[in-house]
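Sequence of diguanylate cyclase (Pseudoalteromonas distincta).
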Amino acid sequence: MQRVLVVEDSKVVQQVLRHLTAQYLDVAIDFAWSLAECATYVEKYDYTLALVDLTLPDAPHGEVAKYTLSKKIPTVVLTSKIDEYKRQQMLELGVVDYVIKDNRDSYHYAVKLVAQLLRNQGCKALVADDSLLSRSLMKQMLEKQLFDVTDAHDGQQALEILKANPDIKLLMTDYAMPSMDGFELVKAVRNFRGRDDLAIIGLSGAGKHGLSARFIKYGANDFLTKPFMNEEFHCRVLQTMEQLSLISDIKESAHRDHLTGLHNRRYFYQYAEKLLKSKNQKNTLALLDIDFFKNINDTLGHEGGDQALKQVGSLIRTTFSKFTVARVGGEEFAIILPEIELERGREYFEAFRKKLASYDFSISDKSIKITTSIGLADFQDTSLTQAMRVADKALYEAKNQGRNCVV
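Predicted 3D structure, token representation.
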């Protein structure tokens, strides 16, 4: 479980940070006022990350950052002022980054930085460079940002690693490499990994004009010139990964039903089409319809109807947590059970039908009972349209048989 420690002695700043962390971070957060309180927390909990003030009453010379780093906690520093000596001191200490507290936006930046670092944890990155020293340096810097890092000594090896590991999310590649240079690697990678799925940052030595534009035209998300400053490296990587995260959030939002949080009809059809390509695989398709839903709307209002949809959707999601569940219509839900034949699927849904019928739903402070009619269909070697037609016909038959049954 991820956990963040914030150390700040200013009441005003800590209040701002409490507000922002509650808004942007969905993890356990502890707030300390001093080095002594920080040490108490560190002895008690394991921390993923620390956000600390450089100057505290009992630690005026950055001792708190030294302490958290000594405990192997990746650390972001907050400071009210910075000079070259302090900057070098912090970089030598090994902090991930520093943020200057000169306006309200800086606190937004600090918290969003922490949020992205937390998203980086466990995220896989690949460094491709024929220089062992350069690879080692970038690997070390990425590990500070909580990435799980692999390296490759040339473009060909990097390509093979990427093909074998589709969960790698960041590639940093040098231009000049034997067997396959950075341009060729980027072009080859973009044949099977898009910009919104894999972030690529190109690198090259100073003095080679036009390389940045060519890298980006071939498919890189960004470019760095060697030698680079630590801050520039961290900023470029973090901003690139933040863009990837935002695209992922947008895509996820586009695939979700806003009311129930389940997948929507568009995602369901895309997922089902993929299953159709898997021959020799029997699947069960189910359509569920809430019985007498109009009565719920008429007696409890549309707000009550929305509550009913949310609660039924939640029960479906928890019961079928291993499967793809979607809201495909007003009060209609669809579920696919991959590699489960129809008779076994019937057992699943008969058990769920009984569970739902006995459940006490609380709608607008009233306890009500809800039932569902369920239509099932085989889903193998057929078109999705045909499978949906069969399931819909079965659902219609369930309604004709008096509802609250599986056909």
